[in-house]
């Protein structure tokens, strides 16, 4: 639909509104083919949650928005009716050359979100998109299609972000990530945190801290609760900038639902059938607020989130879900001394179907590089300096058999081209992967880069003293830092370069970003991981 057609429709609706006498929010049934749609006049700007694009393919991507004139109200002040939106995709940022346009329906069942799967575009180039609703127009975003699968590609540059506790800092890092103009962003999860609003928190080494801003509401249980938390998070314009700059591949970690949940189990001993109801609400809100394809729409308390994207012949990006199919954390889910259960042969991280899918995809891959884009640390670090050995049992370290199976499969391929991308830890780490980190093999099997948080954990420190000691006991760990920020991966045919971007301060707005550290690994030689 052209701009002019939109204006004409808007004009007709205005006339209708005038003749019926518009209330502050008015929903009128207006036949636009079938089904019958409503066309509201908005008291406030309805696009306050911004726009986003995601899951790019060679011929298109998802474009997303959600109408919310009063985002922090539980009904976000939208009528209980479906609303028609217009959308445009242009070849230029002035929208002079609109290459596709259409309409979509924002339905109350989906929190008045739309997920338009745009197809039929050219591979490997940027496009600009925006929405209209009634007389209102959204800001615009930029999305890039992937290069054609298998096409020779010389270079790719993408960002990694996640763990963005709203109360513990400002999203300055997202503003800087946007300025990088990455080809895409991988979000490893903890997009929201489900806890109740709090004025203070125990900010680690420095003692109690006042939060720089506060969540609205109590701990999240209902669909309305989760919706409102996403709305509050998405009102942040630094975050909106990062979404508007590039398409995102999103996955979740635990806090989109509940701290350290796995499978059907939360941490509080809630009956599984009851926790399933909370999961269902959280998954629906996640889908509503993320630029995901319809193939990820939740069905009951289940959601298909693992998937693969191929960036020409340069990279196969395997996006994993390490929460939904995982067996319970061993040894009572403590961060501490491991018990025998970490060696259980029936333990699962990916679950049977996802693991079979991943290993099959990796075997079939002829891409130059393979990435496992996921959540929890795969390095099995000894986390305590000195005699005592402790593990993070919510990471792959608590699941030795599934970990061994994946690493054996990578080793058997003999390509030395696998990079594991991780979040969750709220710190930066880079290191080698071995079957047993305590007794590393002669040759590293793959490389792991762990991205720090956008804000979670507050300012942090450049180097933690305990981690320097831990590094001495873990020869596979090559670098560490505990500040906030994001990671950029610059991938060429022969060299993978990871840049750790950090900020000194997330408790004040406008902090500068710097490339704190750069590491490289050569194609085919995971043992070559080194500072650059
Ligand atoms: Fe987190
Ligand atoms: Ca845990």
Question: What is the element layout, followed by pairings?
Answer:
Layout (H helix, E strand, L loop, with lengths): L2 H18 L8 E2 L6 E2 L12 E7 L2 E7 L16 E8 L7 E9 L6 E6 L7 E8 L2 E2 L3 E4 L10 E7 L10 H8 L5 E3 L12 E3 L5 E3 L12 H12 L2 H9 L2 E3 L21 H18 L17 E5 L3 E5 L15 E2 L14 H14 L4 E5 L17 E2 L7 H14 L4 E5 L5 E6 L12 E5 L9 E2 L3 H9 L3 E16 L2 E9 L9 E10 L2 E7 L1
Parallel strand pairs: 11-12, 12-15, 17-19, 19-21, 21-23
Antiparallel strand pairs: 1-2, 3-4, 4-7, 5-6, 5-8, 8-9, 8-10, 11-25, 13-14, 16-17, 18-20, 22-23, 22-25, 24-25, 25-26, 26-27, 27-28
Helix pairs in contact: 2-4, 3-5, 6-7
This protein binds fe (iii) ion and calcium ion.
The site of calcium ion has 5 residues, from loops.
Task: Describe this protein's structure.
The chain is an alpha+beta fold. Strands 11, 12, 15, 16, 17, 19, 21, 22, 23, 24, 25, 26, 27 and 28 form a 14-stranded mixed beta sheet that branches. It contains eight helices and 28 strands. It starts with a helix and ends with a strand. It binds fe (iii) ion (FE) and calcium ion. Residues 260, 329, 333, 393-394 line the site of calcium ion.
């Amino acid at each position: 639909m052209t701009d002019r057609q939109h204006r004409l429709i808007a004009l007709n609706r205005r006339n209708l509104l005038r003749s019926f006498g518009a209330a502050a929010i008015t929903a009128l049934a207006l036949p636009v083919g079938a089904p019958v749609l409503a066309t509201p006049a908005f008291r406030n700007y309805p696009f306050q949650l911004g726009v986003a694009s995601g899951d790019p393919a060679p011929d298109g991507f998802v474009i997303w928005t959600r109408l919310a004139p009063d985002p922090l109200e539980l009904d976000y002040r939208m009528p209980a009716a479906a609303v028609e939106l217009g959308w445009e995709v242009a070849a230029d940022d002035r929208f002079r050359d609109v290459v596709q346009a259409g309409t979509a329906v924002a339905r109350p069942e989906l929190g008045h979100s739309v997920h338009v799967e745009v197809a039929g575009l050219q591979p490997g180039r940027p496009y600009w998109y925006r929405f209209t609703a009634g007389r209102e127009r959204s800001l615009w975003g930029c999305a890039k299609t992937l290069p054609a699968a298998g096409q020779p590609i010389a270079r790719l540059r993408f960002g990694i972000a996640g763990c963005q506790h709203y109360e513990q800092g400002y999203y300055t890092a997202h503003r800087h990530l946007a300025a990088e103009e990455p080809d895409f962003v991988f979000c490893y999860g903890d997009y929201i945190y489900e806890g109740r609003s709090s004025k203070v928190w125990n900010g680690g080494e420095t003692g109690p801290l006042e939060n720089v801003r506060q969540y609205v509401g109590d701990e999240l249980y209902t669909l309305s609760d989760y919706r409102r938390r996403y709305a509050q998070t998405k009102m942040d314009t630094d975050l909106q900038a990062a979404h508007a700059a590039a398409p995102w591949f999103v996955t979740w970690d635990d806090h989109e639902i509940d701290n350290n949940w796995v499978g059907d189990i939360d941490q509080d001993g809630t009956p599984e059938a009851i926790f399933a109801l909370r999961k269902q609400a959280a998954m629906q809100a996640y889908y509503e607020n993320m630029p995901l394809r319809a193939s990820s729409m939740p069905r009951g308390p289940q959601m298909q989130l693992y998937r693969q994207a191929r960036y020409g012949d340069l990279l196969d990006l395997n996006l994993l879900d390490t929460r939904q199919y995982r067996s319970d954390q061993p040894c009572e889910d403590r961060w501490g001394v491991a018990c025998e259960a970490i060696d259980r042969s029936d333990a699962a991280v990916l679950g049977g179907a996802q693991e079979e899918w991943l290993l099959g995809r990796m075997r079939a891959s002829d891409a130059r590089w393979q990435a496992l884009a996921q959540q929890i640390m795969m390095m099995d670090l000894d986390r305590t300096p000195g005699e005592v050995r402790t593990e993070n049992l919510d990471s792959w370290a608590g699941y030795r058999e599934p970990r061994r199976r994946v690493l054996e499969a990578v080793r058997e391929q003999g390509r030395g081209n696998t990079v594991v991308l991780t979040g969750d830890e709220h710190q930066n780490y880079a290191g080698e992967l071995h079957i047993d980190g305590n007794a590393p093999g002669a040759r590293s099997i793959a490389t792991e880069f762990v991205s720090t948080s956008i804000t979670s954990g507050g300012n942090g420190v450049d180097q933690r003293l305990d981690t320097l000691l831990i590094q001495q006991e873990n020869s596979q760990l090559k670098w560490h830092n505990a500040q906030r920020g994001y990671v950029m991966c610059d991938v060429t045919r022969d060299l993978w370069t990871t840049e750790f971007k950090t900020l000194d301060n997330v408790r004040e707005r406008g902090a500068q970003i710097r490339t704190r550290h750069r590491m490289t690994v050569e194609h085919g030689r995971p043992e070559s991981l080194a500072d650059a």
